[in-house]
Amino acid sequence: MKPLHRLLCLSLVSILLLLTGCATRPVNPPIKQADPEYGYRYETREPQTGDRENLLILAFSGGGMRAAAFSYGVLEFLNRTEVVGPKGNKIKLIDEVDIITGVSGGSFTALAYGLYGEQLFNQYEKRFLKRDVQGELIARFVNPVNWGDLWSNGWGRSEMAAALYDDILFNDATFGDLERGKGPMILASATDISTGSRFIFSQRIFDGICSDLNDVKLSRAAAASSAVPVVLSPITFNNYGGTCNRQIPDWTKPFENITAPSRPAARAIRSLKNDAALEDSANRPYLHLVDGGVSDNIAMRSVLESLEMLQALAGSGVKTPLDHARRIIVFVVNSVSTPSTNWDKSATPPGTLDVLLKAAGTPIDHYSFEAVEQLKDMAAQWESLKLIRNSAVMKTNKNPAIAAAVQGPDAQIYVVDVSFPVLKDKAERDYLNQQPTSFVLPDEAVDRLRAAAGQIIIESPDFQRLIKDVHAELVTLPESVKTP
Length: 484
Fold this sequence. Notes:
Radius of gyration: 24 Å
Order of helices and strands: HHEHEEEHHHHHHEEHHEHEHEHHHEHHHE
Distance between the termini: 68 Å
Oligomer: single chain
Number of strands: 11
């Protein structure tokens, strides 16, 4: 054989060996018996927070690095802001956070804070925010050394992305590491591409698929939550549902056998039924998860559904994990952007790609707005019902039907809207709206997103009302919340 032919043959064999691949996706382990007192779930973490009156929830939206930086700015604000309580005690606001929900880009910040706590403030900027994560992903995708893995069955671009996230941020940590920590409950969510329903990384959901969440890497949860369809491949999990005697929480049992919509918990009931459907592992032995923004781009649906169930159960005697709360405070950290276009100035319509991107994003943007407004409406409704119940007329009225009609939780809801539209500085608002949904941003954009988050909170009328209502005062203002 001639040297040239021999070289070509060796090259061809090398390529074929590369393409055969040997990578296999991680397999989530099964459990034989579901235990409602085991694993990473709110019910087991609630005792760590004590019987406090205030339930503080942060909801971090999707939006790539833009979302990661904006939500990190909220954590920075809470970390450097203290209040003095009515008894003279100093309270660091970040220590009051009970739950953080995160989707897509926001899930990275949520999971990283759950893992590192306050240590995150010394490393997140360098390790993730001001790093060309997108460029590093592309470099791995186009490297011939990795092509064999990419062609392996069940192992795709998102698994390769998860490996990168471990290298640069999560260090192979699992949800078991979060369970052992003392921080807030972190609820990262993805979308079940087969049904379009949310899939939340908590042991309560993993009981449905009879699997142990503690062994699942945080990097895979982040990869699933940010797996933009087509651009990235789904993250696949084995489903062993129906084999571990799953038990639903007592406070959800009143809704278990309801078939018709029930107000005000119709959406919550539908979500519970979607969770129960996971037990059909005979027909669904695998679950394929993609970007959580497809089903809930501001990580708010779980919050809304929980509050709906709380309202529906009011007066029933059924105990819920939220019964102790007198105030439910939700920071809606929404980095959804609405960049302007000049399309309407031309008779020529926008191109196909532009239309596809706009068509995909516009419904998500509108739903994000509606979800925030729904939460605000619920807050107003709860307050109105409470005023009616406490009125002199109701105290003398013995009609049980009327009493039942005005039944509701005694807690008060505060909604702190942390989003670009409420930023007073128009020039800064326009700048932030132009930042793309990608996993790389200029350092200046990262800094301005972080600063804007603090600026919005300190100027928020709802935040100022909250501080006044708890008879506290701010004693440590942020170092600087002005635009660099």
